[in-house]
Amino acid sequence: MISDEFDRMTMANMEVALERACQLHPDQFEGHEARRLVAVAILESAQCGRKNLGQLTLAATRAVLRLRPAALSRPESRERRS
């Protein structure tokens, strides 16, 4: 279980990093799958020892940037922009 692997501060930082990424790009995070992919990037960062809020937020931001082209190419995303 994740909570057994990390201390409370790291867990809190992980949650904040995920929420920050999702608030910055709300249209991309309507679905569970995008949030999950960002959460996985945050988890991998923490497992590698990058546990402070800045490092976790950076991992989340990088994951968002990787997702962005895919989200922009979806037909429903193009319709919203029109």
What does it look like?
The chain is mainly α and 82 residues long. Helices cover 79% and strands 0% of the residues. The protein is built from five helices and no strands. Helix 3 (32-47) runs antiparallel to helix 4 (53-73). It is globular.
Brief overview:
The protein is mainly alpha-helical and 82 residues long. The protein is 79% helix and 0% strand. The chain contains five helices and no strands.
Question: What's the structural blueprint in terms of helices and strands?
Answer:
Layout: H1 2-5, H2 8-24, H3 32-47, H4 53-73, H5 75-81
Helix pairs in contact: 2-3, 2-4, 3-4
Note the run of SSEs as H and E. Answer: HHHHH
The strand count comes to 0
- Taking pLDDT < 50 over at least 5 consecutive residues as the criterion, the unreliable ranges are 75-82
**How many structural domains are formed by the residues?**
1
Kindly state the mean pLDDT as a whole number? 82
How far the N terminus sits from the C terminus, by CA atoms, comes to 43 Å
What does the radius of gyration come to?
A: 14 Å
The percentage helix is over 70%
Structural class: mainly alpha
Instruction: State which percent range the strand residues make up.
Output: under 5%
- Silhouette: globular
Total number of helices:
5
| Major pleated sheet | none
